[in-house]
Fold this protein.
Amino acid sequence: MDAPALAGTLGVGKVLVKDESSRLGLPAFKILGASWAVYRALEERLPEGAFGHWETLEELKERLEPLRPLNLVAATDGNHGRALARVARLLELGARIFVPEDMVSARREAIAGEGAEVIVVEGTYDEAVERSAAEDGERGLVVSDMSWPGYERIPFWVIEGYSTMLWEIEEELERRKEAGPDLVVVQVGVGAFAAAVTRHFRGPQSSRHPKLLSVEPESAACLLRSVAEEHVVSVPGPYDSIMAGLNCGRPSLVAWPIVSRGIDVLVAMDDEPAREAVRMIAASGIVSGETGAAGLGGLLWLLREENSGDQREQQEEARRALNVNRESSILLFNCEGATDPDAHDRLVGGTHASS
Ligand SMILES: Cc1ncc(COP(=O)(O)O)c(C=O)c1O
């Protein structure tokens, strides 16, 4: 959708928002990756051709009989785990979802509300990932959006699943006969989402070549740090940003080669611009959580003149590289609705719209 008020505030020609605050009944896009990765992984566990032709969910569930009982397993900052739990529920499989201890109760309850067993890990998201990985086996199928050495195929399918969003954007631009964005802004946790965006716009099939800007919280800027050091590194916790979906300390191994080559500018910011962005997006009639608004927050931070010292230099360089001006068309992803409704209400000062 067009967001002319945001374009006015940013002083650019056009702002397009891909709104993912409601996707298949969930308040984030993540089920696009989880569902495709589960499908491919289950297919691989069955004898070749066993999925055969199916049309209804009932038929698909029947094909899974030889694999039961089976738990789908993942660690999560919130949205991936909830999405995986939903897929498990649809397929009548179990779900064991590992969460960091500081996850707010609304997000934990939302995962449990999908029928999943929620296991709280003392530690960060990265520690939850480690715990979940140990569950892989005959009765546990780990479907993670994070990848590590030896665990790469499933996270790649997650990235493939996200591409649905990009093709929807193409269809909409085609329908409108629009040239498409000059700049695309993408939020980064482990980088799987950014990898989907980068693959799309840097792939041989793409007729568009916008600049790509990634946004991370300062306290979990693992992609920015890794790019600076030219290899994957972990940044130390605690990861305590309100941009909860981005609280990850290490980039995904399969995302890394894609994003490290394809993203033009990487920024990291504190929470304040994300708060401001939630309010601005709400004023445009869109429900956005702090992670969802972080793309706009990153832009606000980047285009602002008043930052000081090192930051100013970094910003000026980034602005030059992106060449944002009064004519620019910018695509933002509102990748998440109000997954912490109380926090959303506190920020926008009212009752949250349903998510
Ligand atoms: C809503 C939302 N947006 C963006 C991200 C970041 O995606 P990735 O971890 O693939 O970088 C997440 C991660 O959980 C998320 O939940």
